[in-house]
Each structure stands twice: as C-alpha cells, then as structure tokens.
Write a structure and sequence with these properties.
InterPro entries: ATPase_dyneun-rel_AAA, CbbQ/NirQ/NorQ/GpvN, P-loop_NTPase. The chain is 45% helix and 13% strand. By secondary structure, the protein is of the alpha/beta class. The N terminus is likely disordered. It binds adenosine-5'-triphosphate and magnesium ion (MG).
Length: 380
Amino acid sequence: MPELINDTTDGTQATAEGAADGQALRPHAEDSFAGELKALAAADDRPRPARWRLSPWAVATYLLGGTLADGTVITPKYVGPRRIVEVAVTTLATDRALLLLGVPGTAKTWVSEHLAAAVSGDSTLLVQGTAGTPEEAIRYGWNYAQLLAHGPSREALVPSPVMRAMAQGMTARVEELTRIPADVQDTLITVLSEKTLPIPELGQEVQAVRGFNLIATANDRDRGVNELSSALRRRFNTVVLPLPATPEDEVDIVSRRVGQIGRSLELPPAPEGLEEIRRVVTVFRELRDGLTTDGRTKLKSPSGTLSTAEAISVVTNGLALATHFGDGVLRAGDVAAGILGAVVRDPAADRVVWQEYLETVVRERDGWKDFYRACREVSA
Ligand SMILES: Nc1ncnc2c1ncn2[C@@H]1O[C@H](COP(=O)(O)OP(=O)(O)OP(=O)(O)O)[C@@H](O)[C@H]1O
Ligand SMILES: [Mg+2]
C-alpha cells in the first residue's frame, strides 16, 4: 500500500508510488537527505522544542553543513549568512510564523522545504499560492459523496495541509503567499494568532498542537500583486534572503546544485566544467549589477532576473548538451545558447543590452575568445 501523502479537497488521495521504489524524479528533502537527518538526530543531545525532530542547533547545522563528532559530513544546503538561518530556525521555535522574502531564485522555496524536513521530518504539508487559491486550500474542504450521504461530519471533512499540520504539531508551508487573494490570505490570521481553525458547520474547531508553525515564501518582485495585510504581516517574522554576496559563493552554489541535479538526471560529473560555471556566474553578476567585475565599465541591465537559479539551469542544460552531443566536457558553446535565452527576455530591448555587453566587455576580455565566438554564433 503506497504511503498516503496528501488529501486533496475533492477527497481523492494522492500517493507517493514513485517515491516508494526510489524512482521519484525529485525526491523530497527528507528522503534525499534521510541519512544526514538520521546522523544529526543521533548526535544531537541539545533540547528539542515540542515535536521537533532535531534541536534548533542541529536544524541550522543541517542547513549550513558541518562535520559531526563521529565524522559524518553534513552537506551545506543553503550557502549564505549563518545569522539568517539562525534567525529563521529560532522563529520557528516561537509563536510567530516565518516569512521568507527575496527576489526570485534566492532559495526561498529551497530553504522552506529543508527547514520543514529538518524540523518536522515532512516537507509535504504544502499549499501552493496562486491567484486562484481558494479558502478551502488553507482551511478544509468536503468529500461531497460523504457529505450528501451522511451530512456534515468529521469523516466528510477533507483537511488542508495547514489543518493537518495544526492537528499533528508539524510545519506547514505556504508558497508564494502574496499571489493569494487578500481575503483568502486573511484566513491565516486566525490560524496564526488564535492557533485554531474553526469548523462552523460542525460547531467544532481544530486547535493547533505544540510544534505547529508555518513557513511562507513571497517574492519581492510580486509585492503589490496582493500586498500582505498589516494584520497578517504582524504574525510573521520576515527574513530576507539575499543574492549570493561574492562570485565565489555563487560559483559554489551553482556547481553544488548542478552536481546534485546532474546525478538525478544521470549526467556524468563534470569537474572540468568549473571554468565555464565561473564564466556564466560572472556574466550574470555583471549584467545584474550593471557593472563589470573590475568596476570600470557601467552596463545596462536586461529586463529578466538573472538569478542563481537561472545560472543553475543554464549550466545543467549545457552539461546535458555536452553529454549528449559533445565530448562530455562543458564548453563555451554548450552554455552560450542558454545564457542568451536567460538574458534576452524582451527580444528588442534586451538584445541591444546583450550585443553591447558582448562587443564591449566579452570581446576584450583575456581568455574569453572561445566564449565570444560561441556567443556570436548563437546571437546571429
Ligand atoms: N544561497 C543559496 N544557497 C543554496 N542554494 C541556492 C542559493 N540560492 C539559490 N540556490 C538554488 O537556486 C535554486 C532555486 O531556488 P528556489 O526555487 O528556492 O528559489 P525561490 O527563491 O523560491 O525563487 P522564486 O521566487 O522564483 O520562487 C535552488 O535549486 C537552490 O538550491
Ligand atoms: Mg519559490
């Protein structure tokens, strides 16, 4: 019997069949890193908040990486300021919820998933926020067959991920909170301030058990789509995730993630690809900052966000190209088309920005001849 992972509002049940035999295309954090989580739990002798799988210290170590006393290496999941992770983890141990804010591709979703996996051992209690997210997705729905046959009862009620997290003292996640219509967002106010979810149809309520908390993510760029009401904002501690501070950090993040994604796509490792990764990151950072690395030349920035996430996908695609159609070594020609696609979102304005960058910066740079030629070829 496959494990039950999700109830949907129409009463059907989603199952994790693929995951059961290790064939999931993208396993959940708690499955991918089950070994590390187990080692941390065994080594962790610090006090744990109610229903937490690990102590706050161990959760932070899981996210930031480290080596345990017995020599087990914990890989870093998040590369960034330690303080940010410490504040985020601490917030989850208080009665305030956590809001991860930042520009696209700054690992908000990624951090939220790993926090839920480390704290509750389950990152799947998730509500995806969209313009069409209904109140039922946050509160509860009904199994209509049951409802018609037997009237309203607890059996006919289909709990939302938030309701289940409350009942079990777990971590719930809400993705893209500001995309959810304002009146639906406000459903969370009672949940977060009173820690209860009333069910007026039954004259009952679900009270949150200790250990319950909520992590929401929201995009800086979407601000204003559906502004958070101040009543709701006050229930959250906001942690802003920054773009990687240095090029080295960003190269580190990209090569790490490309390695992991490459393994799951069964691409061979590409240690020689580091030079190309460095170039992709340099191009992205320079265009994003509107300034060359040496600080000498001002540049125009293109309209799209050239985030770390985009760099990861450019390099992964390049690696796939090199594997299937090249000699297996990541070269300039394998990433050029990807970079062009990421930079030129608006065919008119961005193309001018790109051409200018290509001719004034890339062309003149020592050791970048092959890259210039590859870019010229795909830009033509
Ligand atoms: N500082 C970082 N440390 C580790 N990984 C990072 C970092 N920044 C970005 N990434 C990687 O970037 C990818 C995209 O991150 P994610 O999807 O979480 O971004 P997001 O902030 O949720 O973006 P969006 O606003 O588009 O939803 C992930 O694979 C993540 O590993
Ligand atoms: Mg996200």
